[in-house]
Amino acid sequence: MTTHTRTDLGEDPGKDPRTAAAAGRTAKRAATGALIGLALGDALGFPTEFNDVPGILSKTGPWRSMALPRPAIVTDDTQMTLAFARGIRTAAAGGRVDPTALAGPVREEFVAWYHSPENNRAPGNTCLKACRLLDQPALDWRDASQIGSKGCGANMRVVPAGLVPGWTEEERAGAAQLQSALTHGHPTALAASDLTARAVFLLARGTEPTGLVGLLRSYALENRTRYHERWLGDLWMRTACDATPESFMARGWDECLGVLDRLASALRSPSPETDPCLTTGDGWIAEEALATALQCFLLFPEEPLLALRRAACTQGDSDSIACLAGAFAGAHLGADVWPRDWEGRIEYRDELLAFGTLWDA
After folding, report:
1. CA–CA distance from 26 to each of 4, 33, 204 (Å)?
2. End-to-end CA distance of the chain, in Å?
3. Whole-angstrom distance, CA of residue 13 vs CA of residue 182
4. DSSP per residue over 229-251, as a string?
5. Three-class SS of residue 346?
6. Structural domain count, the chain
7. Between the ranges 118-122, 238-242, 300-304, where is the mean pLDDT highest?
8. 7 in any annotated domain
9. Cα 299 from Cα 160, distance rounded (Å)
10. From residue 283, how far is each of 18, 86, 90, 114, 126 by CA, in Å?
11. Domain residues for 298?
12. Is pLDDT above 90 for 232?
C-alpha cells in the first residue's frame, strides 16, 4: 500500500500556511459563503432539473436573469450535505476525526435522512438503496456500498470536508472518500469526491481561480495510486475488476484526469452562452458534476449569481451542478457575496449558517 504523511499544502517551510488560511477564511467567512451558495444553487436548479435548455428558457426567460424560486426549496443535495455536516460535528466532539469515529455518525445521519418525511425531493436510487442497507446495524458499511455506482450523489454532499479547519490532508481526503463510499463505492466516485473537497478547500484558503484546474490535476496525479486503507478498509476487494488497491484507485483518478482535460480545453475557448454540459458532461456522474460545476464557476469567477444561473440553465443534473458551482463561488468570494433577499429565504438557512459560523470561527 502507498502511504504518505503530509500537511495540508506543503508550502514554504518558513511560513505557517494554516495561520494564513485561517485568517483569510475568517475574514471572508468562506465556510458560510460555500454552504449558502450550495443551497442557493440547489434551489435555483431544482425546478430546471430534467429539462433541456430550450425548455428551461421557455419557463424562466433569459438565463442571465433567472430568479430564485419562491419558496426557495432545496433538494436531497443540501439535505445530505447537512447530514454529512452533522456527522462530522458528532465525530469531532471526541477529538481528532478518524475513520471509526466518522463512519458511525455519518451512517446514522444518512439513515435518518432516508427515513425523514422531508426525503421527498427525487433522491437518487443509489443513495436510497445504499441507505436501506446501511439501516441494517449488523451489516458492514462496505457491504452496503454500491461499488458499481459513480453517481453525483457521491460528491454533491462532500463540501463540508473541504471546509472543516485544522484537518490534515490525509484526514480531508479520507473523510471525503469515506462519505462517498458509504453509498457510492466506485473508484471514480471516491476520486471525484476527494477532488471536489480539494477544490473547495483551495478556494476557501485563497487560491486564485485561474490556477485551480492545474492544481487539481497535479493533486490527481500525485494521488493516482494512493488507496486510503485506513479509511476504506477492504472496499476495493468488492470488485473483480482490479488486482490491487492501487489499480482500483488509478481507474478512478484516470477518469477524473480525463474530464479535467476536457474542462481545460473548454476554458481555453470559453463560450458562456453555450450549455457547459456539451463539453464537460451532463453531471449525472460524479466526475462530470465536478467538471461542469467548475466550468460554470470559472466562466464567472467574480460574478457568482451568473455562475449559479449558468449552472441551473443546463440540460443535465442542474441542481447538483448548480449546488457545487455555488459552493465554489462562495468558498472563493465569501458570505457577503450572496444577496440578502436570497439568503434570507433559503430552506434550512439557520442550520447552514450555524455550520458556517462553526467552521469560520
Report:
1. 29, 11, 10
2. 37
3. 36
4. HHHHTTGGGG-SS-SSHHHHHHH
5. strand
6. 1
7. 300-304
8. no
9. 24
10. 33, 26, 31, 23, 15
11. 18-360
12. yes
